[in-house]
């Protein structure tokens, strides 16, 4: 302290020269560092201590100085740091630099001790410095505290296991707990890990403080990224701590500008940290939460600043004994009355109708000059800013004007009509009608519009627009287009199939007979549509085609292609799509009836010999379908078969024959007989036909005797085929019980 | 860089008057530059004195040409002659070309302002003179060699050569660290904060990162540069006060706010500053080099 001032100035100048030297060439560092240590040590003047601490911080942070040299320099420097700290040092700048130096030294010393277990003294000194820093951290002035937080981050980073990139080359691995051997003489892994876990909690503690210190929070947030990136084991803990932290909740009113700056900075820094993590690892398991957090931050930031600005505007104390602050806020200011000028004189036009401004410059401006996207960009945000009441006023004003015009013009028209009497012919009407695209426009409106057109032909001079006739399609093209349309409907069918089944069943039950085909957009509706497309739409056309002869017939008609597709569609999954089959066949059958009826009428009416023929589709397709899936039926599909046979509109002999053919397969004999028995019991019109078939089966197939015999004895006891077999029947029925079939 | 080429007279509002470019630009220094240099020289002796503490600054914009360089000029040319370095965060240096789709593109760190100046003046001197690009480049080449990319900066690497090359503001930044980074656009602030996280905070050196939102044109850059200088002066005042309070006069002598450290005062300083410049939205955080 007794050194004269100019002496210190000289010394500093010398030291600066030394610093210039090492900055120019890092090779001088060892020499200089060891040389300056005594000059800047614990007992020297403040200026020198400051310079020294600053220089040490710079030295051990420098990327130019190799790790090995730093390690060599460390022991001496450690001792000096410890001495200065234990002075005890009170100068903020010196403390700040020393803590920075310690943070840089910590990994170096740690690594040194890992490799040189015998050098316990260095570790002891380092630990003493660490304890001193941690103990005094909370009483340190703010700038030093910030550096302490960084020091803790360094310690945590060192004392948490990191990645071992190459176990064979330990010198390449990053300094972390993972490089410490299990049986190390000085370093005990569990202790170090426990310590770092505690320190991490202390570091993350800033996020739980009632009132956040923005500096400490920002400093912490900004140093967490390397920990998250390189220390898997604690990454999620850190991220979760950040995700729990909402800066706006950790500040207290009043919201001074300083507080707002702080909140904004903490929010932006937290966001920057999370974005940094997400950028590094876009598939992070916590990605969803991080994104939600980022969004929430953006929102809360707006709220806080808005709140704050609004609150500042209000008076602090009630002015009339009552707290009218709330009232003032609830009763929103009455919106400014819009000044509506009377409509511009002259013939009424839409632009005059909607012009609410008196500014001639504005009203003469042609908006069409602006490109449409620019207009959109202007109009959309503008609309969102317009007050509801102002908009309402403007709309009312326009409506009033409109009604006035309408009234005037109606009056005018009546007068004209009266004047023009009968020669007035509204020749404009048919012309105008096709233009009137939207039927939404009320009659009155269209009448008025027409009126306007009539009165001001030069204003609304759009003539009727007629699309040019498209070139005629060839038949192939038409067929192609038709088929592609059908394919799209099938697409809908497939899409609708995925819709939940129970809901479908429910709605069907509810509708019952009141159901209209195609009223609900479910699978059934689409299948009805398809079936009708196939049956009704081309009805009658095919007759012509038949008449035209083979040349045309060679191409499949659109109806047949639909049928073919439907057929294939059903066979793909006949159990599930049986109801589509039934819908379809019903439509076919009905269509056949209708066709025959109309053909009969024609014949009656014309009395000519042309004799229109009706192509009947039901039989063909019913048997084809049956053929299609009979082969795949197994003995347990009785429900499928019975449903099909009972719900198709008509049973024909070909159908029963096909059913009978099932009996060829001994396994499906029962299927055959039971489905026939069902028809006999519940389908009286087909009973005789079916009994005949049962007789046939009984006669042809031995295996069917027991079951078929029973049916015959019950329904046709007088059957001639029965007698010779009657004696056998009871015996075989014992061996093959029929009723046990599910 | 998003200059508006339609603002033909924008060049006239840049800090230096626009005389035709001197054929050998080194020989004739422009008026402002001369005064800046004088200020720098006069402040040099003070710099060596122990009590003249100065914060070290870093200015950042997209291309290290307009906004960050204007701020660089203001800070290094101020009476206090702050130590200052400057960077761009873009991937390339982009200067406006003959149309919006034909920018002039250069790479960072390897192209000098002088090269750009020569190239553009040979391409279309009238155009680049009238949109102010040549004036800007001329200013820049008097300040330092060429645009540097922030992401390529390794903090802590000595910048002695910049000092020897005569970069303005190089005195005090030899150590390759700064106390304050000021960006001129939120995008750049995000990039800087993100990049500092990526750099790994290995120096354990705290740095205040500010953003002052400045539109990318000559007038705004000038206004913004002055505002940045104001902010820098306020920050430096607080830092000097801290050094003094905690220095020879003794820690115990100060009371209340006087004992507050520089760091603690930063949010307050920024809030005050923001009240004064409501049109330059600001942002701040405390990061690590």
A few lines on this structure:
The complex is a heterodimer of chains A (742) and B (289). Chain A is mainly alpha-helical and 742 residues long. Chain A is built from 34 helices and no strands.
Using brief descriptors, characterize the structure shown.
heterodimer; A: about 750 residues; mainly alpha; about 65% helix; B: about 290 residues; Rossmann fold; 2 domains; two-stranded antiparallel sheet; 8 helices; RNA polymerase II subunit A C-terminal domain phosphatase SSU72 (chain B); RNA polymerase II CTD heptapeptide repeat phosphatase activity (chain B); protein phosphatase (chain B); RNA_pol_II_suA (chain B); mRNA processing (chain B)
Q: Percent of residues of chain A in beta strands?
A: under 5%
CATH C-level category of the largest domain in chain B: Alpha Beta
Distance between the termini of chain A: 111 Å
Number of helices of chain A: 34
Helix count of chain B equals: 8
What is the helix fraction of residues of chain A, given as a range?
Answer: 55-70%
Helix/strand-derived category of chain A reads mainly alpha
- CATH superfamily of the largest domain in chain B, by name, is Response regulator
How would you describe this structure to a colleague?
The complex is a heterodimer of chains A (742) and B (289). Chain A has helices at 5-24, 29-36, 46-61, 67-85, 92-115, 120-136, 142-158, 189-204, 214-230, 232-243, 257-280, 287-313, 324-330, 350-354, 360-363, 372-385, 388-420, 428-432, 443-455, 475-497, 501-511, 523-535, 541-548, 550-553, 558-572, 578-606, 618-630, 638-647, 653-661, 669-682, 687-700, 705-715, 722-726, 729-735. Chain A has 742 residues and is mainly alpha-helical. Chain A has a domain at 337-416. The longest helix of chain A is centred in the middle third of the chain and has 33 residues, at 388-420. Chain A is elongated, with a radius of gyration of 48 Å. Chain B has eight helices and seven strands. The relative contact order of chain B is 0.16. By secondary structure, chain B is of the alpha/beta class. The model of chain B is unreliable at 8-51 and 248-255 (pLDDT under 50). Chain B has helices at residues 31-48, 67-77, 113-130, 133-143, 160-164, 186-199, 218-245, 262-276, and strands spanning 57-61, 84-88, 93-95, 104-106, 180-183, 206-212, 282-288. In chain B, 42% of the residues lie in helices and 12% in strands. In chain B, the strands form two sheets. A five-stranded mixed beta sheet of chain B has the order 2-1-5-6-7, sandwiched between helices. Chain B has two domains: 57-90 and 154-288, Rossmann fold (3-Layer(aba) Sandwich); 92-148, no CATH class. The two termini of chain B are 27 Å apart. Classes of the chains: A mainly alpha (742), B alpha/beta (289). The interface between A and B is large, with 56 and 52 residues.
